[in-house]
Amino acid sequence: MPRPAHVLFFMVCAALLWGALLSCSLGFAQLPAPELPAAERNLAIVVNQSNPVNDLSMADLRRVFLGERGHWPNGRRITLVMLEPGWPERAAVLSGVYHMDETEFNNHFLHGLFTGEVFVSPKTLATPEGVRKFIFNVPGAIGYLRASDVDKTVKVIRIDERLPGDKGYKLHVPPRENR
Amino acid sequence: MGREKASGARKAMPGMRSRPAHSWGRFSRYSSALLLFFILCAATAVGLFAIRDLRRADLDSQNMYTGSVLSLHRIAALQYQTQETRRSTLYALSTADSNLHVKYADQSREADHLVSEGITAYLANARTPNEMDIGRRLQRDWSTYLNVRDEVLASILEGSTKEAVDLDLTQGVQSFDRVRQDLAEIERVYDQQASQQLSNVDATSRRTIIRVGAVLGITLILALASVWAIQRSRMSNAIQLARLQMEFLASVSHELRTPLAVISSAADNIADGLVKEKDDVKKYGAAIQSQSRQMTELVDQILLFSATKDRENHAAFGILDLSEILRSVVHQASELVSAAGFHIELEIAPGLPSVKGDASALARCLQNMIVNAVKYSGKSRWVGVKAFPGGSQLPGRREIQIAVTDKGIGIAKPELPHIFEPFYRSPAVVAEQIHGTGLGLSVAKNIAEAMAGHLSVASELGAGSVFTLHLPIAVDAESQVPVEIRAEGSTEK
User: Fold this and answer.
1) With bands split at pLDDT 50, 70 and 90, how would you rate the model's confidence at A4?
2) Using an 8 Å Cβ cutoff, are B190 and B78 in contact?
3) What is the band of B312 on the pLDDT scale with cuts at 50, 70, 90?
4) Which of B63, B150, B214, B423 is least enclosed, having the fewest CB within 10 Å?
């Protein structure tokens, strides 16, 4: 027959073990979700390697993307490259640069081209790889890519003197969904 | 026999030369061998020449293939890729879809990358200054075109189609034409090289054909010459044989005529009753008997020569006691020639081993040798017969040598190789009117060889000759009983 002292000791140990396990599980649940690498989260503004521009202010970038500037300082015509609707990168640019939604974006260019206030009609490509190749082929092209999609064929420019990954860089992209 | 005793006046037949015309036959045989050797050399030379030329032609073909044909293929590929570069660029003009623009731009760049690699490879393989110049010019022109192509592509991708077309028409077409001209020039250079190498191969082939034809012609001529020489040799041998046979017939006829004349004369005298006395009849009978024997002996000699030509008749061979045979033969010969003052001296080594052979043939052989020595012993009238064991030239073989020596007229050295030939009679013998059939020594030689032996001669002109019969000692000689001697024509006491 078990003695009462032994039973009590066993119950106390079990309670302590249970409490420890519970506290551990609660503690893990309260940890922040794992963050994406910076290259995945940052949206880079890219131009052709031959483009002399290395730095743009957010205001200048907005004017370029709105089509209000037609040429680069070297005289090259600006060609704006966009991803097709549905890409998170496009959504990030619409919100971060244009401050518009899709409808406002389309209306802006329809109206601007009709009135002549917009000099550039954006080219729409199906994939980030297409964007990269387009910018590689066109000296005056400007577009955007997730920083992890950037390679040596294109040049990343500073926005407000910051590169993707720098502290205070304003253009970020949500995680890529499966398309 | 080779140097038969002169039994009467006999002169060489007119128009017949005693010395056979061996020179041409021997020369023809040697010439034939030499010609065959030359033919073999010529055939070998043909093979070597042909192999060398074929290898050269093969090498030229390989050089032509690797140097020109493959290069032409590379240039053709280069031409295709340059066209592909331009074609992909122009395809981009046909659509407004930016994604297709990018795709065509990619294709164009892939093609131009291959072209650039091809030009680099061409420059690396260029051997002549001309090729280097063309290669560098192509590289420069291609780079110029690519710059224009990049601008055209950029304009297309920007959406400025008109600008792209204008740029291509004003600059692209011209720069691309220059590239095409450069490639065409390279192609011409390779064509020239291929033509040159092809002409080399052609020249090598023609040279091979000429060489092979020439040497085959020479070979054919040599073959014909060889056949002619062989035929000439055969004809010469046939003529020589016919002449010898004529001489032999003349000699035999002469040898037969003398005893026949004696017999006929004796018979006539007896028939006419001129011989009446008993002593005279006996005398004539003895003369007839003697001449008949002489004729019989001559006929036997001829028949024996025919028989000894067949050397395969070993069935009658037995173990022979050589001493007994020698004594018998010498005894018979002494009886025949002692009346004429000849002396035959016999010396037999004690314990002489037996030999294997035909007793009667061996007796005939020894008889021929002794009679030959008697015939040519000259004024010395001495003949020596000596039998003794001797060493053989063949290793492991023991033999008995029977030397028959005379101190007569001897034999000139040039005659020595011919004295064993059938029907041969030396000019000196003919000149001295010593009669014979020319078969004696030939028969003796045939008999010796039939018994696995041989006959040798040593002679000095004017000093005499030694004919030696070499016979191998029978292996089982000691265990055998000698057979009875049956020497043909012997007159044993």
Assistant:
1) low
2) no
3) low
4) B214
- CA B60 to CA B204: how far, in whole Å? 9
CATH architecture of A38-159: 3-Layer(aba) Sandwich (3.40)
The token pair at A178 is 């499966």
Phi, psi of B123 (to 5 degrees): -65, -35
Q: What is the pLDDT of residue B7?
A: 36
Report d(CA B4, CA B478) in Å as an integer: 38
pLDDT digits (tens, 9 = 90+) for B24-41: 555 555 666 776 777 778
Contacts of B348 (CB under 8 A, 6+ apart): B323, B326, B327, B386, B387, B388
Q: Would you call B75 helix, strand, or coil by DSSP?
A: helix
- For residue B128 the two structure tokens come to 């002549």
Q: Do A130 and B99 touch (CB under 8 A)?
A: yes
Answer yes or no: is B21 within a domain: no
Query: Domain for residue B438, yes or no?
Result: yes
pLDDT single digits (tens) B221-230:
877 887 888 8
Say yes or no: B98 contacts chain A, CB-CB below 8 A.
yes
ipTM reported for the complex surpasses 0.90: no
CB contact under 8 A, A125 and B159: no
Answer whether residue B239 is part of any domain.
Answer: no
Contact A159, A29 (CB under 8 A): no
d(CA B96, nearest CA chain A) in Å? 10
